[in-house]
Amino acid sequence: MPFERQALIKLRQVAGDAALGAAVLAHRDAFVWSDIPWDRDDALHLRARQARELVPPGRFNVKYSEGALVEVEYAAQYLQIQHGRAHPELRTPSTQQALDRLRRLAVLSPDEHRVLAEAYVFWRRVADGLRMVRGNARDLLLPVAGAEEMGFLARRLGYAGGGAAAAAALAADVARHRDRVHSVFTARFR
User: Fold this and answer.
1) Whole-angstrom distance, CA of residue 110 vs CA of residue 104
2) Where in the chain are the domains?
3) For residues 101 and 23, what is the distance between their CA atoms, to the nearest angstrom?
Protein backbone atom coordinates (compact mmCIF):
# COMPACT_ATOMS: atom_id res chain seq x y z
CA MET A 1 0.00 0.00 0.00
CA PRO A 2 2.83 2.47 -0.56
CA PHE A 3 0.88 4.44 -3.14
CA GLU A 4 -2.05 4.95 -0.77
CA ARG A 5 0.25 6.23 1.95
CA GLN A 6 1.92 8.60 -0.52
CA ALA A 7 -1.39 9.90 -1.86
CA LEU A 8 -2.72 10.54 1.63
CA ILE A 9 0.26 12.78 2.45
CA LYS A 10 -1.36 15.34 0.14
CA LEU A 11 -4.76 15.15 1.87
CA ARG A 12 -5.91 18.40 3.46
CA GLN A 13 -9.22 19.93 4.37
CA VAL A 14 -10.30 22.79 2.13
CA ALA A 15 -13.96 23.18 3.11
CA GLY A 16 -16.77 21.63 5.11
CA ASP A 17 -17.31 20.67 8.70
CA ALA A 18 -14.17 21.32 10.76
CA ALA A 19 -14.82 18.45 13.19
CA LEU A 20 -15.30 15.96 10.37
CA GLY A 21 -12.18 17.27 8.65
CA ALA A 22 -10.16 16.86 11.84
CA ALA A 23 -11.46 13.32 12.28
CA VAL A 24 -10.54 12.39 8.70
CA LEU A 25 -7.06 13.88 9.10
CA ALA A 26 -6.55 12.02 12.40
CA HIS A 27 -7.53 8.77 10.71
CA ARG A 28 -5.16 9.56 7.85
CA ASP A 29 -2.34 10.34 10.29
CA ALA A 30 -2.82 7.03 12.10
CA PHE A 31 -2.32 5.21 8.80
CA VAL A 32 0.30 7.31 6.99
CA TRP A 33 2.54 7.92 9.99
CA SER A 34 2.07 4.47 11.56
CA ASP A 35 4.85 2.07 12.42
CA ILE A 36 3.98 -0.09 9.40
CA PRO A 37 7.28 -0.49 7.55
CA TRP A 38 7.57 1.25 4.21
CA ASP A 39 7.73 -1.33 1.41
CA ARG A 40 10.56 0.00 -0.73
CA ASP A 41 10.41 -2.80 -3.29
CA ASP A 42 6.67 -2.39 -3.84
CA ALA A 43 7.00 1.39 -4.09
CA LEU A 44 9.83 1.15 -6.62
CA HIS A 45 7.94 -1.48 -8.62
CA LEU A 46 4.95 0.86 -8.84
CA ARG A 47 7.21 3.75 -9.85
CA ALA A 48 8.86 1.70 -12.62
CA ARG A 49 5.47 0.52 -13.87
CA GLN A 50 4.20 4.10 -13.92
CA ALA A 51 7.15 5.25 -16.05
CA ARG A 52 6.83 2.25 -18.36
CA GLU A 53 3.08 2.62 -18.92
CA LEU A 54 2.74 6.41 -19.04
CA VAL A 55 5.78 7.42 -21.09
CA PRO A 56 5.96 6.50 -24.78
CA PRO A 57 9.29 4.91 -25.78
CA GLY A 58 11.87 7.48 -26.81
CA ARG A 59 9.97 10.43 -25.35
CA PHE A 60 10.40 12.49 -22.19
CA ASN A 61 7.41 13.23 -19.98
CA VAL A 62 8.01 16.19 -17.67
CA LYS A 63 5.97 14.49 -14.97
CA TYR A 64 6.47 10.73 -15.28
CA SER A 65 9.86 10.05 -16.90
CA GLU A 66 12.90 9.00 -14.89
CA GLY A 67 14.41 12.09 -13.29
CA ALA A 68 11.27 14.17 -13.81
CA LEU A 69 8.78 15.79 -11.43
CA VAL A 70 7.36 12.59 -9.97
CA GLU A 71 10.80 11.36 -8.91
CA VAL A 72 11.31 14.58 -6.94
CA GLU A 73 7.85 14.28 -5.35
CA TYR A 74 8.26 10.58 -4.62
CA ALA A 75 11.70 11.08 -3.09
CA ALA A 76 10.19 13.61 -0.69
CA GLN A 77 7.18 11.38 0.04
CA TYR A 78 9.25 8.23 0.56
CA LEU A 79 11.41 10.09 3.08
CA GLN A 80 8.36 11.66 4.72
CA ILE A 81 6.87 8.19 5.24
CA GLN A 82 10.14 6.84 6.61
CA HIS A 83 10.79 9.74 9.01
CA GLY A 84 7.41 11.42 9.57
CA ARG A 85 6.44 9.28 12.55
CA ALA A 86 9.47 10.47 14.52
CA HIS A 87 9.44 14.00 13.07
CA PRO A 88 5.93 15.51 12.89
CA GLU A 89 7.32 18.59 11.13
CA LEU A 90 7.67 16.42 8.00
CA ARG A 91 3.90 15.95 7.82
CA THR A 92 3.19 18.53 5.15
CA PRO A 93 1.42 18.19 1.79
CA SER A 94 3.89 20.67 0.25
CA THR A 95 6.77 19.02 -1.59
CA GLN A 96 8.92 22.15 -1.29
CA GLN A 97 8.31 22.40 2.46
CA ALA A 98 9.01 18.69 2.85
CA LEU A 99 12.32 19.00 1.00
CA ASP A 100 13.34 22.00 3.12
CA ARG A 101 12.41 20.23 6.36
CA LEU A 102 14.19 17.04 5.30
CA ARG A 103 17.30 19.17 4.79
CA ARG A 104 16.95 20.89 8.18
CA LEU A 105 16.71 17.46 9.83
CA ALA A 106 19.80 16.30 7.86
CA VAL A 107 17.79 13.52 6.21
CA LEU A 108 18.84 15.08 2.90
CA SER A 109 22.38 16.30 2.40
CA PRO A 110 22.82 19.91 1.25
CA ASP A 111 23.66 18.65 -2.26
CA GLU A 112 20.66 16.29 -2.44
CA HIS A 113 18.39 19.09 -1.25
CA ARG A 114 19.78 21.53 -3.82
CA VAL A 115 19.36 19.04 -6.67
CA LEU A 116 15.79 18.10 -5.72
CA ALA A 117 14.60 21.60 -4.77
CA GLU A 118 16.01 23.23 -7.92
CA ALA A 119 14.61 20.47 -10.12
CA TYR A 120 11.20 20.71 -8.45
CA VAL A 121 10.94 24.40 -9.36
CA PHE A 122 12.32 23.74 -12.85
CA TRP A 123 9.94 20.87 -13.64
CA ARG A 124 6.94 22.84 -12.36
CA ARG A 125 7.93 25.77 -14.62
CA VAL A 126 8.36 23.49 -17.63
CA ALA A 127 5.02 21.76 -16.99
CA ASP A 128 3.28 25.12 -16.65
CA GLY A 129 5.01 26.33 -19.83
CA LEU A 130 3.84 23.26 -21.74
CA ARG A 131 0.29 23.90 -20.56
CA MET A 132 0.49 27.47 -21.83
CA VAL A 133 2.07 26.53 -25.17
CA ARG A 134 -0.40 23.72 -25.81
CA GLY A 135 -3.46 25.21 -24.17
CA ASN A 136 -4.19 22.09 -22.11
CA ALA A 137 -3.03 20.39 -18.95
CA ARG A 138 -2.94 16.82 -20.24
CA ASP A 139 0.06 16.54 -22.52
CA LEU A 140 3.32 16.85 -20.62
CA LEU A 141 5.53 15.22 -23.24
CA LEU A 142 8.52 17.41 -24.02
CA PRO A 143 8.62 18.41 -27.68
CA VAL A 144 11.05 16.35 -29.73
CA ALA A 145 14.48 17.83 -30.44
CA GLY A 146 14.38 20.27 -33.33
CA ALA A 147 10.63 20.79 -33.15
CA GLU A 148 9.41 24.37 -33.48
CA GLU A 149 7.33 23.81 -30.35
CA MET A 150 10.54 23.38 -28.31
CA GLY A 151 11.55 26.89 -29.34
CA PHE A 152 8.12 28.22 -28.34
CA LEU A 153 8.43 26.51 -24.96
CA ALA A 154 11.96 27.85 -24.42
CA ARG A 155 10.81 31.37 -25.24
CA ARG A 156 7.83 30.99 -22.89
CA LEU A 157 10.24 29.97 -20.13
CA GLY A 158 12.45 33.01 -20.72
CA TYR A 159 15.40 31.43 -22.49
CA ALA A 160 17.38 34.02 -24.43
CA GLY A 161 18.22 33.89 -28.09
CA GLY A 162 15.02 32.42 -29.42
CA GLY A 163 14.67 29.56 -31.85
CA ALA A 164 17.22 26.79 -31.98
CA ALA A 165 19.63 28.40 -29.46
CA ALA A 166 16.92 28.77 -26.81
CA ALA A 167 15.62 25.26 -27.52
CA ALA A 168 19.14 23.83 -27.15
CA ALA A 169 19.65 25.64 -23.83
CA LEU A 170 16.33 24.29 -22.54
CA ALA A 171 17.22 20.77 -23.71
CA ALA A 172 20.55 21.02 -21.85
CA ASP A 173 18.77 22.08 -18.64
CA VAL A 174 16.27 19.24 -19.05
CA ALA A 175 19.12 16.72 -19.38
CA ARG A 176 21.00 18.20 -16.41
CA HIS A 177 17.99 18.14 -14.06
CA ARG A 178 16.86 14.72 -15.31
CA ASP A 179 20.26 13.15 -14.73
CA ARG A 180 20.83 14.74 -11.32
CA VAL A 181 17.38 13.89 -9.98
CA HIS A 182 17.56 10.31 -11.20
CA SER A 183 21.04 9.97 -9.68
CA VAL A 184 19.79 11.14 -6.26
CA PHE A 185 16.65 8.98 -6.52
CA THR A 186 18.63 5.89 -7.51
CA ALA A 187 21.31 6.39 -4.84
CA ARG A 188 18.66 6.85 -2.16
CA PHE A 189 16.16 4.16 -3.02
CA ARG A 190 17.73 1.43 -5.17
Assistant:
1) 9
2) 2-189
3) 26
Cα 52 to Cα 58, 65, 130, 141, distances in angstroms: 11, 8, 21, 14
Residue by residue, pLDDT tens for the chain (190 residues) are 668 888 999 988 899 999 999 999 999 999 999 998 889 899 999 999 999 999 999 999 999 999 999 999 999 999 999 999 999 999 999 999 999 999 999 999 999 999 999 999 999 999 999 999 988 878 899 999 888 999 999 999 999 987 899 999 999 999 999 999 999 999 999 8
Q: By the 8 A CB rule, do 63 and 70 touch?
A: yes
Q: Do 99 and 116 touch, CB atoms closer than 8 A?
A: yes
What is the DSSP secondary-structure string of 37-52? PP-HHHHHHHHHHHHH
Statement: 2-189 belongs to CATH 1.20.120.330: yes
